[in-house]
Design brief:
By secondary structure, the protein is α/β, with parallel strands linked by helices. The protein has a single domain, classed as 3-Layer(aba) Sandwich (Rossmann fold), CATH 3.40.50.880. Helix content is about 35%, strand content about 25%. The protein contains eight helices and ten strands. It has an eight-stranded mixed beta sheet with strand order 2-1-3-4-10-9-8-6. The protein has a two-stranded antiparallel sheet with strand order 5-7. β1, α1 and β2 form a beta-alpha-beta unit. α3 packs across α4. The longest helix is centred in the last third of the chain and has 28 residues.
Length: about 230
């Protein structure tokens, strides 16, 4: 069976809605926890590597030295064209691993919002997200790496998604976030939400209203991407 290795930086930012489509396709999924497990070995061994999100910055290697090994492993993997999916921090790590700057943006982008697809994005797996709000939850951003194809932007950030060839996909937003588990996000990021002045009850209600649309779109997007190389 093909092995999907998921690199997790905080416990609740995991595969989420992407778990069921992977299981349906017969993938075996294992997790490796950043700062504890051998992340570089997990990334190197995977048939598919999924790099999940987290509340740290790619540039904080002095505080979180494991990022150096993670970046090196991602760079080797992407250079070889091996299937890799980056989610939020994971997308930033892919960009940085390929030589693009990652840096704090002008403001936090937290909550549900639409993305604007580029021409290439409209012909990609992300086409199914054209009319479906996605969950944004970040303050950092990045420049496009060499050979990166821009797929999506938002009103606040020009770079929301990019691909490198058919096997590497980087999403700044959280297409994988499971609305049924939003409370974990609201608790786990309580300090960030408070500092950003986010209306937590409103975010909770918005999540509930979007649940069915988001679940269907996430599975469709992942399957379309995997159909392109798997």
């Amino acid at each position: 069976m093909r092995q999907a290795r998921v690199i997790r930086h905080v416990a609740f930012e995991d595969l989420g809605l992407f778990a069921a489509p992977l299981a349906a396709r017969g993938w075996t999924v294992t997790y490796a926890d950043a700062g504890i497990d051998d992340i570089a070995a997990a990334i190197a061994a995977a048939d598919l590597a999924v790099i999940c999100g987290g509340p740290i910055g790619v540039y904080e290697t002095d505080r979180y030295p494991f990022l150096l090994d993670e970046l090196a492993a991602i760079e080797a993997r992407v250079a070889a064209g091996r299937p890799t999916l980056g989610l939020c921090l994971g997308a930033q790590l892919i960009a940085a691993a390929r030589g693009a700057p990652v840096y704090p943006g002008p403001r936090k982008e937290i909550g549900w919002g639409r993305i604007q697809l580029s021409l290439d994005g409209r012909h990609s797996a992300l086409a199914v997200l054209a009319d479906v709000p996605v969950l944004h939850w970040h303050g950092d951003t990045f420049d496009l790496p060499p050979n990166g194809m821009l797929l999506a932007s938002s009103d606040l950030y020009a770079h929301q998604a990019f691909s490198i060839g058919s096997t590497v996909l980087a999403l700044q937003f959280h297409a994988e976030a499971d609305p049924r588990r939003i409370e974990q996000w609201l608790i786990g990021h309580a300090a960030e939400l408070s500092a950003a002045g986010i209306d937590v009850p409103a975010l909770r209600a918005r999540t509930k209203n979007l649940r069915d649309r988001v679940e269907s779109a996430a599975a469709s997007m992942l399957n379309r991407w995997m159909d392109g190389w798997g």
